[in-house]
Amino acid sequence: MTAVLRAHGLGKRYGRRWALSDCTLEVPSGRVVGLVGPNGAGKSTLLNLAVGMLAPSTGTIEVLGGRPADGPAQLAKVGFVAQDTPTYPGLSVEEHLQLGARLNPAWDDAVARARIDQLGVDPAQRAKNLSGGQRAQLALTLGIAKRPELLILDEPVASLDPLARREFLQDLMEAVAEHELSVVLSSHLVSDLERVCDHLIVLVGSRVQLAGDLDALLATHHRLTGPRRDETALPADQHVVSASHTERQSTFLVRTDAPIYDPAWSVGQPDLEDVVLAYMGQRTTDRERRPVLEVLR
């Protein structure tokens, strides 16, 4: 697997507080990768390290074969849309495009202007007068017209209404298909990730707890319901992600590549949100366990 991003033992510390620690992962190329996790898991820190806006305290990170922000050539390879889709309030849409052209050697002015025209945005309008959805689309336009190899988006639709989110994500997918981008999209909206992503990374407590192609992840997770029993009674190849019990019944979410033959179990297929929430809901004490990514490798 060719990786657009590799991190090993990556960490970022602010004083005594670790915003990210011991993070090891690979992001495959040619994919739309969803990055999801609870607040404080280190998602934004990881993405800011990937674009060179932060320097690691420990470990290493490599993006497209080089060190983040290591010179103009490396900077040109990566597009970044930060949280709140930042734009310059006092600049017009036209001035944003002119600034993009000055700062980016591979700038595709035709693509930028075609997108603005398609969106129906007046180029003379100042960014502060745009709607939230229009500002997000302007930020996406700047990221795409840069013609990067990797586009990184840090919760770009978190503040948008459902219609604006859908339009933004649809435009993103059209851009991916047209320009063959690799994308890393951070979001806490699992339904959005399911709509556009084909690879998922779940980050909990700054550690990768789950990573893989969506189809494979869904195929290897199962919900088992049956007579009450302790999880230690399950086969060793069934990794228990979550468990709940009543007086007579147990329900487990397990990950396994092997068939489940025990006739006592009623076997169901969880959806992506079920799987993600199970990993996000793991207790802090569980973080000392080896991540599932490693257990099942």
TrEMBL record:
<dbReference type="InterPro" id="IPR027417">
    <property type="entry name" value="P-loop_NTPase"/>
</dbReference>
<dbReference type="Pfam" id="PF00005">
    <property type="entry name" value="ABC_tran"/>
</dbReference>
<dbReference type="InterPro" id="IPR003439">
    <property type="entry name" value="ABC_transporter-like_ATP-bd"/>
</dbReference>
<keyword id="KW-0813">Transport</keyword>
<protein>
    <submittedName>
        <fullName>ABC transporter related protein</fullName>
    </submittedName>
</protein>
<dbReference type="InterPro" id="IPR003593">
    <property type="entry name" value="AAA+_ATPase"/>
</dbReference>
<keyword id="KW-0547">Nucleotide-binding</keyword>
<keyword id="KW-0067">ATP-binding</keyword>
<dbReference type="InterPro" id="IPR051782">
    <property type="entry name" value="ABC_Transporter_VariousFunc"/>
</dbReference>
<feature type="domain" description="ABC transporter">
    <location>
        <begin position="5"/>
        <end position="230"/>
    </location>
</feature>
<dbReference type="GO" id="GO:0016887">
    <property type="term" value="F:ATP hydrolysis activity"/>
</dbReference>
<dbReference type="GO" id="GO:0005524">
    <property type="term" value="F:ATP binding"/>
</dbReference>
